[in-house]
User: Which sequence fits this backbone?
C-alpha cells in the first residue's frame, strides 16, 4: 500500500507481538501507536476506512470511526461464527460492509442484519504453478525419482514445538515402507536457523533416531504442488493445500486445557453444515467447513499420533479410490472459494469502497490507516 502512494501512520510490524509476555512487555509502545493512529483519524477524517482482519485492534478502531461518521469496510472476517458470537453486535453497530472470504460467512452475517458480501478467497485466485519437478529438484538437490511428502507443522514457534516431533516420527514410520523425501517449508514467520536447531534437537534426543531424507524449502505452495501428499497443521495452510489440490491430512495439538475449553465454547450456527465425529469433535479444518462435510481426515489432540497419521496418509500416497476422491473433493472446495465472474476479491472490496465514497458524495481519496 505504501508503494501505491498511501501514507503509513503506524507500522504494523512495530506493534506485532505474539505471546502474553511479549505483548505485556511492549504494551506501552503498542498503546502509544494506537493512540497516534486514533489521533490521525480524528485529524484527517478519512472518507472511508478499510479494516483488514486483526479484530482485537480493528473493532476498537471501528468504534472510533463510527463516532467520527466514517464508513467502515471490514475485509476478512474474524471467526465469530465459531466463538465469541456476541461480538456480532459490534459488526452490526460499527461496520458498513463486511467483505468475507468464505461462502458460508455471507449467509451467517446476512441472517443477522449485516451487509455482507462473499468476495472469494485470494488464495483460490492464484494461478496454479507450472514449474517442473526437475527444476524444483535441482534447486534443492532432491532426487526427482523418489516420491515427495510435504510436512507443514505450522508458522509459529509454538506450533512447531507442539507438532514437529510427531511429524518427524510419522516420516520415520512411513520410510519403513517406501523411500520418501520430505519437504518442510520454512514459514516467513520462522527463523530458519531456529527450525534447524529444533530438528537437530529431535535427532540428538533419540525421539527420532534416524531422521528421514528431509529438505527445508522456501515456499509452502511449491512444496504442496510437487508433493505426492502432505500433512498440514490446521490453519490457513489447509486452504492453500486445498486450492493446490494436494491430498492431505489435517493435524493439530494444543494444551489439554485449551482443547477442553474449545470443545465447550466452539459451536457452529445453522449456516455451517457440520457434525461431530465419533469422538465428539466438530470439524476444525476450513476445507471441511467449506465443503459442508469431512473430505479430509482430521487428527487432533490425542488422535494426532505418528501411527494414525501414517495410516491416514498411506491411502493418499497410493493410487486408488481414496486418493482420487479427495482430489475431486478438493477441486470442488476450490470452486466454492471463487464467487464467479472476472473480478478478484480485492477488486470487489475496492468496488465496495467506491460505492461508499460515491454515496457519501466525498472525494475519492483514501488515507492509509
Assistant:
Amino acid at each position: 500500500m505504501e508503494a501505491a502512494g498511501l501514507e503509513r501512520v503506524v507500522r504494523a510490524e512495530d506493534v506485532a507481538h505474539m505471546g502474553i509476555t511479549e505483548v505485556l512487555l511492549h504494551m506501552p509502545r503498542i498503546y502509544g501507536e494506537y493512540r497516534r493512529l486514533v489521533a490521525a483519524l480524528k485529524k484527517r477524517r478519512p472518507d472511508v476506512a478499510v479494516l483488514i482482519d486483526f479484530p482485537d485492534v480493528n473493532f476498537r478502531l471501528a468504534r472510533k470511526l463510527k463516532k467520527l461518521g466514517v464508513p467502515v469496510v471490514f475485509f476478512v472476517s474474524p471467526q465469530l461464527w465459531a466463538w465469541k458470537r456476541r461480538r456480532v453486535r459490534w459488526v452490526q453497530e460499527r461496520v458498513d460492509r463486511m467483505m468475507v472470504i468464505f461462502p458460508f460467512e455471507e449467509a451467517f452475517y446476512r441472517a443477522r442484519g449485516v451487509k455482507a458480501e462473499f468476495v472469494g478467497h485470494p488464495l483460490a485466485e492464484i494461478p496454479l504453478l507450472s514449474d517442473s519437478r526437475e527444476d524444483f529438484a535441482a534447486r534443492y538437490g532432491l532426487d526427482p525419482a523418489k516420491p515427495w511428502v510435504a510436512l507443514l507443522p505450522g508458522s509459529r514457534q509454538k506450533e512447531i514445538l507442539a507438532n514437529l516431533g510427531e511429524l518427524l516420527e510419522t516420516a520415520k514410520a512411513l520410510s519403513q515402507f517406501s523411500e520418501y523425501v520430505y519437504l518442510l517449508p520454512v514459514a516467513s514467520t520462522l527463523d530458519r536457523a531456529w527450525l534447524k536447531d529444533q530438528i537437530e534437537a529431535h535427532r540428538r534426543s533419540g525421539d527420532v533416531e534416524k531422521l528421514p531424507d528431509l529438505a527445508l524449502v522456501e515456499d509452502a505452495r511449491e512444496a504442496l504442488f510437487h508433493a505426492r501428499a502432505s500433512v498440514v497443521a490446521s490453519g490457513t495452510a489447509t486452504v492453500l493445500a486445498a486450492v493446490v489440490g494436494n491430498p492431505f491430512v489435517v493435524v493439530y495439538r494444543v494444551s489439554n486445557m485449551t482443547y477442553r475449553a474449545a470443545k465447550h465454547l466452539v459451536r457452529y450456527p445453522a449456516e455451517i453444515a457440520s457434525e461431530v465425529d465419533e469422538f465428539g469433535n466438530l470439524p476444525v479444518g476450513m476445507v471441511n467447513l467449506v465443503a459442508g462435510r469431512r473430505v479430509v481426515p482430521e487428527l487432533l489432540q490425542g488422535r494426532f499420533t505418528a501411527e494414525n497419521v501414517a495410516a491416514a496418509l498411506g491411502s493418499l500416497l497410493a493410487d486408488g479410490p481414496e486418493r482420487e476422491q479427495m482430489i475431486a473433493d478438493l477441486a470442488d472446495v476450490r470452486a466454492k472459494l471463487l464467487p464467479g465472474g472476472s473480478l478478484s476479491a480485492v477488486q470487489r472490496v475496492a468496488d465496495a469502497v467506491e460505492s461508499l465514497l460515491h454515496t457519501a458524495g466525498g472525494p475519492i481519496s483514501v488515507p492509509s490507516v
Summary: Confidence is low (pLDDT under 50) at residues 363-369. The longest strand covers residues 148-152. The chain has two domains: 12-120+339-360, 133-336. The CA atoms of residues 130 and 358 lie 42 Å apart.
